[in-house]
Specification:
Protein name: Cathepsin F
Structural class: alpha+beta
CATH superfamily: Cysteine proteinases
CATH architecture: Alpha-Beta Complex
Organism: Alligator mississippiensis
Keywords: Signal
Distance between the termini: 33 Å
Number of helices: 5
Radius of gyration: 17 Å
Pfam families: Peptidase_C1
CATH topology: Cathepsin B, Chain A
Family: Belongs to the peptidase C1 family.
Amino acid sequence: MGPAALRATVLLLLGLRVSATAPPETAEPRLVPPRKSVPPSCDWRKARAVTPPGDQGDRCRACWAFASVANVESLWFIHFKKLYKLSVQEVLDCSGLKDACAGGYPWDAFGTIYTVGVTTAAHYPYQARQGQCRWNQNYVLRIHGFQTLPSNETELAALVAKRGPITVIMNARLLQNYRSGIITRHLSHNCNPDLLDHVVLIVGYGQENKIPYWIVKNSYGLDWGEKGYFRIYRGGNACGIAEVSLTSTVGQDGAGGRAHRARCPA
């Protein structure tokens, strides 16, 4: 099943909302992966390019906003060496969704940041409920748009290593009882890769005991999993993690500085 069909069959479980609309004016051509060989490992946390995992809470299915905002935070640091903790609440409030806490898509978040920008979490803290948009012109950044990514996991790993963390949609069934370790290929047979209900951020990848894995930032707080992260088998579309992936695009900061490349630590 391709991404277009999956978008129409997403479940209303942990943070997704069936929607026929995505902001096409912000969408850019599909990102082409680098042709060079993929590094054996990558962890953007070691470059201090990832903010600590947030906690969406039990009342608001805001994973779509948390994971998308986290993508923008990391890319902004990688390109401009400025790490902001950005406002998920502003994205919720200003998204234009009727009920943003019933779920949304990553492109809803990227479209909001593209259109109105986003300020810091300190100026617009998370409330775990949707409120009235309190937008003003004092945003700290805006993005150029977003790009969809290939579903081939070797190509995705190359893009993570070259460009930075990426936002993905997956089946969250096995996260409910996750504590630590790698969600193996065998375990992932217990979650349907076509039923996507949770949005997370891939921040790197590696291998342990010959098992390749993704390193994934969640939005269940620091006390969950491996200090807010989990690892899942890489290479078999475990729990649908490679079906729908996206990244924001940035090109220039507010001071006119141009983007530059960084290298992902192993």
